[in-house]
Fold each of these.
Amino acid sequence: MSENSIRLTQYSHGAGCGCKISPKVLETILHSEQAKFVDPNLLVGNETRDDAAVYDLGIAAKIDGTSVISTTDFFMPIVDNPFDFGRIAATNAISDIFAMGGKPIMAIAILGWPINKLSPEIAREVTEGGRYACRQAGIALAGGHSIDAPEPIFGLAVTGIVPTERVKKNSTAQAGCKLFLTKPLGIGVLTTAEKKSLLKPEHQGLATEVMCRMNIAGVSFANIEGVQKR
């Protein structure tokens, strides 16, 4: 089978965020009887299920007014094209930093690959797509980790910085706030249709174009006084 005829979406049981563990099951997994370690410098942890964790560098590193953002995001193929899959996965991870109001500064890759089913050349195309997205964001793909896995996965762990007073959290949205969508709704419908070979010709590439668009608007909104995060 040639590389051009391979459909990556057929090598995963789900697609994109559809592979996430359900919140109810995740609560069971994360439940712990151990005493919670409390760090006053950790401004955003897992309590609000935000897009990323935020750590105040003021005390720890004596860098007043600046916090570091840390996030990781990866998933299984959401499109068939390897390069586009890499771009989409990387863009999704980097955009977590923008969603918190910050600026990305570095990324490392996460790759799981079924080496006995898919060639390393295809994996290279995936990582090239991720590298392209990082370059668009103005950051280096500085390293990563890979494993032989039964299904392909790709994503990034991204580090960013943000002025501490500009951190945006899920928990700050209030009733009556106006919503501004930085991307259209319905992308999941298109990607599911593609996986099932039901996508109409006129819709080919539409979802990919949107998913590869860096969500830089998020950090722009973060600098506007009074703006809350969803």
Note: The two ends are 45 Å apart (CA to CA).
Amino acid sequence: MKKTIIIALMALLPFGAFAQKFGHINSGDIIPLMTEYKTAQTEIEDLQKQYREELNYMQTEYQKKEDDYLNNRETLPETIRTRREQELIESQQKIQQYYQDCQINLEQKSKDLMDNINSKVLKAIQAVGEEGAYICIFDLAGGVVPFVNSTLTTDVTEAVKAKLGVK
């Protein structure tokens, strides 16, 4: 009987020796600390400011044209009045189109900058995973992982921060 128990224990021993390592991270805690993120935020804010200034300029010019038209429309000949009305309509459409283009450009720029940042974080996570021999590292920031028992996984956030040079 003793021999059977010893054999059974020896058979189970390799399973403990090959314990699988799982890690977890919250990239949402790391990304705002990155220099690249702060630079991206500044770049987006600067671009927004430039767009806002140009939009204000366009609106001011439109307002001048509209005021001039409203002050003089009674004295203008029909053809000039019609042409100016058309110019006002076109100016208004250009302002609306410019606003929409700015929104699209800002979204694309933000996406491009964040894609670069996310790629850098992913590479750091992969490096930590390979160096630490992890089977899998879950990112809790994405909301894709509904549950992670943090007592059975290792928090590798600090290791990834170190890989990225973030404090």
Note: DSSP finds five helices and three strands in the chain.
Amino acid sequence: MELSNVESALRSLLRRENLPASIIEAAETLMQKPSSDVFVSMIPRFLGTLDPPRWDVLAVGFLIASAHALTLDAHSDTWELVVDRCHANLEHLEPRVRRLVGKALGALSAVRGAGVYDAFREELMDIIECNITRSPEFEEVNEEEYFSYFDTSIPLASPLSTPTSPHRLDDISGFKSLETTLLTFKSLVQGLGPAFLAALEADDFAFFHSIVVRSVKHGNRHVRNVGFETLHVLHKSVLPPRYIMAHPSLGHAIADCLVRGLQDPWSEVRLTASQATRSFLLLCDVHDERPLFYAKLVPRMCLNRHYVADGVKAYSRDTWAKVMGETGRHVVAQFTAECVQCYVDATDADNPFVREAACICIGELVARVQPHVLDLLRAARICLQDDVFTVSDAACAASSQVVLAFPTECRASLPALLKWWTVHLSDDVWSVREDAAVALGSVLRAYPTDEALRKQIVELAATFLGKAKDQPAMSQAAYDALVKSEVAHSTKQRFSCCSFEPRQLKRATDHDLCHDHDPAAGHALWSHTDGAIYLVREMCATKEAQADAIALFPALVDASILRHFPQTSILQETLWKQLPVIGASLGKQVFKRHIELFFDPLALTLQGTHRLAKFAAVECTKQLSQLIGPSIFRGRLDANSMWLAVIAPHLDPQP
């Protein structure tokens, strides 16, 4: 049923079955959009006692009361009826009714002030106390009776739970009742606005501690979400400027709540907490109040700029720009120690996307945090072993950035880093293979004069390039059958961004790193070769390793002409995507001496049937032509009729 506004609600109500004639007549009258007084005069029909009771009729009545609260103020009898029906339906079993009761009370409080809040505060607190914790004394609700309530043709005689009743809702419904009661409090606060300040300050901020703090710490995500919505309303509508300076203990309590929300495992809660954080910081004075809370909030705000949920990410980046302006880097530098500790802790989070964001932040921060390099590198190195590929992928990038920025400090950690970068060079995921190659290439740039290290990486590339030849033969049909079989998808770890299940690998120490087996033992041989193609690209980008990379070109060609297993098309696609980059790194004069070496395998791919590999080959042809010059490229093709017949048609036409 559509309950966003009165007109939509009336239209939806008229489509419902078995409506009493008086309700149909009232709804049709109101659909003519009469004066506000007519709307108020119809409220008793909707909120009156029906036999059997109808939740949908009640909902429309409360919605009308909310929309016409100003007019309702002049009709004392109807006002008293609305207040009485609000009391009676605070724990209505239908959550939509409970939400609209809260909305109505918010509208009434905006008209008559704190008296409405005082009249309902104690009753609402009783409901919260009944439902704030999971009680083993909750009585089971009869299933047939419970579900029949949602069928308007078989209405329930009365609600199952009131604060004074021995009956209790089941566990989940209890949390739903708690959520809507908290929403009612939020509506009252929003309706009162600045007038709520006196109630907020009563009994040493008892409302804040008993409602807001308990909500944001609750185990149910919907309850936590409402808690942060209430905080947001307090910042936007109730607290005056410079209030936090006069009440610093309240400010720190709010900041502690926001810290919990900014690292909540549920994206919805994290987004609402981000909204509350923005409104809190914008409320605070930029010079006297905000710096008091930066140590707690800035590290989490930085992390959320890279969180996987697009809404959280975009909102956090916008908040950073609005709150920090041009001072963001200075603020991060000022609170570097707190940021480092937050990032290190985040690399051990159960949520894999938090670990991924932490690795990105480590790479972002590393150029300005030399005293903390070893802590950050250790955290990134341990994340290289993570069992979630997005985390290990980000860890490859982060650790390589650390090495590039601080080669001297990272020297002692190179053996462990090289081991795990080598493992990821043959990972099942192409992006991990590429980032591992980038990391190995960063070592060549960080230590350009280390001949032993360069030879080690060159030997690694040469060894990996040849592994695809030993890949067991398999037909495409056999491969398709394997992919569809249960075996291919068994014994795989499942994970969720919101999962509370323990990780397979918790943070290790330097002595806990894997030494007793080969982590790459299960990687396919062809994936070693695919990773090596990326590594050759990185070698070409390093002047000291360019000659070694050129010496590996025949091995690249050998890999690209393999056809005895289905993934050969992936090798072709990778090579043709990377070859223009390789050529650009070497430069036109050097690369054109070796370009003809690749024409035979390029033509074979263009004659093939795999669409992605063929498309990559076509794009490669066009880019190579532009790199060395269209006329020179076409002249090279003239040397072989097959090259001319297969490759030349894909060149861009010359003017």
Note: The two ends are 64 Å apart (CA to CA).
Amino acid sequence: MPHELELAALKPGDGVKAIFRQTEGETKYGAERMWVLIERIENDLIYGTLDNDPLDMPLIEAGMPVAIPLSHVISTAFSKDNPRPQTPERREYWDRCMVDLCVSEGRSHVDYLYRENPDMTKEGDKFPDSGWRLRGLPEITDAEAELENAIQYIALGAVLNKDDRWIHLIDEAPGVAFQWDPEAQDYIRFDRPDLLEANDD
């Protein structure tokens, strides 16, 4: 995904790629990635024209006027008159975590999370256990507790792609827990020194 500095530097004459879906009629593909040539940007909306024809969307063709939110841009192309800005190296999140299936599938936000001393890393693993344990809404996790894959061991980035509201907590040291507060629209912090002890499970 484009860096925020790239999005801020876009000007008329540059190009952006976004995902388009035809909402009427049947198509071979559910969605297609297409380029848009920018004419103007107003209130975080890009106005421009499609710069290529879709493979199988008969109601859409190159040259059509479109408007897309900046937040929907998945790639950028800068003109010779507007060089691409320098951007810091993007952080990646490959370390592993334990997470409820409902969170990894996007059916629940991360409702409760805690970080314990990592204990899942096995010899030969390419990426280590982060120690993060991410729980979904209790009413969903309780109903799915008997599923074979109810809890998954996956990359932190895979979870962040579904719910990143907790990303500001990701560098917290082990021994903490956080509960989502819907009224405050933020997480409440709890110190959990017990998480620093040897895991029994």
Note: The chain is about 10% helix and 30% strand.
